[in-house]
């Protein structure tokens, strides 16, 4: 009893200490402030000019060199006639120039749209048209996607750093001044102005451009400095895409704000992960749940415990592998968090409670009164309301959808999307009193003891797979373009041994389907992670009396062909083709024997 109380006291003291330090980082960021993101990073450069900012593919970039490259981007933008408030689309793979580009554009008030580097076809067109960029910048991996736009009128100039489609940008940048542009170009801006656009999948079926104020970007980049106790001797390993807030802003921020270094890779590799950590002196990792599971599925590695990694942060680390991951790889501190780019609900598990994505300590509840959890009808996915018409709060031990009260201050502001209709669709009104407005996260949370909060599942028309949010409508639209597919109902199903939910489509057909053609068509329109893992052939589509697709029964059937009573196909990672799910195959998949 005494030991339990002592441990609890130590835990609470640590939590309070972290919260107080975090407050010091967050307090200077207000909507009215004229201290901007570019000012923050220039101050960091002035403090750590000779420190290594990036290690990438055998090359190093100091803070001073990063700043000089950013200055070249800024001067080039001015030379192209861009001014504060204009938008540039950045469609590029991971590389130091990615950060240098948006940092440089921020110096002159130009807004950067961080386009998902995997999108192609209609999704890419939509992403570009939504924000109306003045020009588009690509890297070395986007030629195929850009060629998919050949039949579309893209009027904006395309510049490329190493690709074949577009005008070469490297020569133009080399001719620019490396001196900082005059601050007058951004002097009229405040933190309430838009700093970046970041894309997110939603119920509309295509990527939505979330507005990110300068204040929001600054806060994201500062959020994990205190919990991780970052300093200039740290080295952060980033294998997540830089167009994502977690890797591209949160992880970049904890390094660049503190003088630390970033070991950057273009993409994650399980086989070289521990070599990198050991050989480059990594102290801090950033993860998504699937990354952790990939590492656990690997054979024992000679360096998996011979490294300096002592801390990590991210989201999606499930409770069933949490302890095993920390123990096997000898990483004492894992900071799990919950949040979305556009939302106003932010949670963090400061003290490492297994499985929790956040915590609202009872003694600090008044500081989190802008976050609420309400009961939801599992069929309609709408919040349940009491006789007075107001929503019913979920209590301890219950599951509810997380909501964030919408207001004008830093904690409660909902900046929305570029599309106003999409923004309005995320707002729930008259929740607890007449006239109030709350942001719907679309995520279900379980409220545990001592204020711990556990992620349960997503509502609506998205599911999470391979660390990405996948829109069911976008996948259904792609299937509708396949000859022979009559209707397509898309949803996510769990697979033993995998995080998130695998994509599954129940389709009706007008005749014989060539599944090689199906795969080719889907791969040309969708990112790899969005191509359905399973396809079920139905004789008749499952719909309600109002002709809306039913999903709950299909999800229950899953990919079991005997339960479905129909053919189910799966994407075989070994053959790279769709194959029929046989009873034997089903047993193998259901036992975790197939690694998707």
TrEMBL record:
Record flagged with keyword Metal-binding: no
Gene Ontology annotations of biological process type: long-chain fatty acid import into cell
GO molecular function: ATP binding; long-chain fatty acid transmembrane transporter activity; long-chain fatty acid-CoA ligase activity
Domain AMP-dependent synthetase/ligase: 42-385
InterPro entries found in the cross-reference section: AMP-bd_C, AMP-bd_C_sf, AMP-binding_CS, AMP-dep_synth/lig_dom, ANL_N_sf
Membrane topology: Multi-pass membrane protein
Domain AMP-binding enzyme C-terminal: residue ranges: 474-548
Keyword list, A-Z: ATP-binding, Cell membrane, Ligase, Lipid transport, Membrane, Nucleotide-binding, Peroxisome, Transmembrane, Transmembrane helix, Transport
Major localization listed first in the record, in broad terms: membrane
PANTHER family: FATTY ACID TRANSPORT PROTEIN 3, ISOFORM A, LONG-CHAIN FATTY ACID TRANSPORT PROTEIN
Family stated for the protein in its record: Belongs to the ATP-dependent AMP-binding enzyme family.
Name this protein carries in UniProt: Long-chain-acyl-CoA synthetase
Organism placement in taxonomy: Bacteria, Pseudomonadati, Pseudomonadota, Alphaproteobacteria, Hyphomonadales
């Amino acid at each position: 009893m005494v030991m339990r109380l002592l441990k609890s006291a130590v835990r609470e003291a640590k939590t309070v200490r972290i919260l107080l330090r975090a407050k010091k980082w967050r307090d200077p960021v207000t909507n009215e402030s004229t201290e901007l993101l570019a000012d923050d990073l220039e101050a960091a450069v002035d403090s750590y000019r000779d420190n290594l900012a990036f290690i990438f593919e055998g090359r190093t970039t100091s803070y001073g060199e990063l700043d000089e490259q950013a200055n070249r981007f800024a001067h080039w933008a001015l030379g192209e006639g861009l001014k504060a408030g204009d938008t540039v689309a950045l469609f590029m793979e991971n590389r130091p120039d990615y950060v240098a580009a948006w940092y440089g554009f921020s110096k002159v008030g130009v807004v950067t749209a961080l386009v998902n580097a995997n999108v192609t076809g209609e999704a890419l067109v939509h992403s570009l048209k939504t924000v109306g960029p003045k020009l588009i910048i690509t890297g070395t991996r986007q030629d195929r996607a850009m060629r998919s736009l050949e039949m579309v009128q893209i009027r904006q100039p395309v510049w490329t750093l190493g690709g074949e489609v577009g005008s070469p940008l490297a020569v133009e940048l080399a001719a620019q001044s490396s001196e900082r542009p005059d601050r007058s170009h951004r002097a009229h801006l405040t933190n309430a102005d838009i700093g970046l656009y970041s894309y997110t999948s939603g119920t509309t079926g295509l990527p939505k451009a979330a507005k990110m104020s300068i204040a929001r970007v600054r806060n994201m980049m500062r959020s994990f400095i205190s919990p991780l106790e970052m300093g200039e001797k740290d080295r952060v390993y980033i294998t997540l895409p830089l167009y994502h807030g977690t890797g591209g802003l949160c992880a970049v921020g904890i390094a660049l704000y503190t003088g630390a270094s970033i070991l950057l890779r273009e993409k994650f590799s399980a086989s070289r992960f521990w070599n990198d950590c050991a050989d480059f002196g990594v102290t801090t990792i950033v993860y998504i749940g699937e990354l952790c599971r990939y590492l656990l599925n690997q054979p024992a590695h000679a360096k998996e415990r011979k490294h300096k990694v002592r801390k990590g942060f991210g989201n999606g680390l499930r409770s069933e592998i949490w302890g095993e991951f920390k123990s096997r790889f000898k990483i004492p501190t894992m900071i799990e968090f919950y949040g979305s780019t556009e939302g106003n609900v932010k949670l963090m598990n400061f003290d490492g409670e297994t499985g929790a994505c956040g915590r609202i300590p009872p003694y600090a509840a008044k500081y989190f009164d802008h976050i609420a959890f309400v009961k939801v009808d599992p069929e309609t996915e709408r919040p349940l309301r009491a006789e007075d018409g107001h929503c019913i709060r979920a209590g301890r031990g219950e599951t509810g959808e997380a909501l964030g009260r919408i207001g004008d201050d830093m904690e409660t502001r909902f900046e929305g999307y570029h599309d106003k209709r999409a923004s309005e669709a995320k707002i729930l009104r008259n929740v607890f009193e007449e006239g109030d407005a709350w942001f719907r996260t679309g995520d279900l949370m379980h409220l545990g003891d001592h204020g711990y909060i556990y992620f349960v599942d997503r509502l609506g028309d998205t599911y999470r797979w391979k660390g990405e949010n996948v829109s069911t409508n976008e996948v259904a639209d792609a299937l509708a373009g396949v000859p022979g597919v009559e209707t397509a109902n898309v949803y996510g199903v769990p697979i033993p041994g995998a995080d998130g939910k695998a994509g599954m489509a129940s389709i009706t057909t007008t005749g014989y389907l060539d599944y090689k053609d199906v795969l080719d068509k889907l791969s040309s329109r969708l990112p790899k992670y969005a191509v359905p893992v399973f396809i079920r052939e139905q004789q008749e589509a499952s719909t309600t009396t109002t002709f809306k697709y039913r999903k709950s029964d299909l999800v229950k059937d899953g990919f079991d062909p005997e339960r479905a009573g129909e053919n189910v196909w799966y994407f075989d990672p070994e053959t790279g083709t769709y194959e029929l799910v046989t009873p034997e195959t089903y047993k193998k998949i259901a036992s975790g024997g197939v690694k998707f």
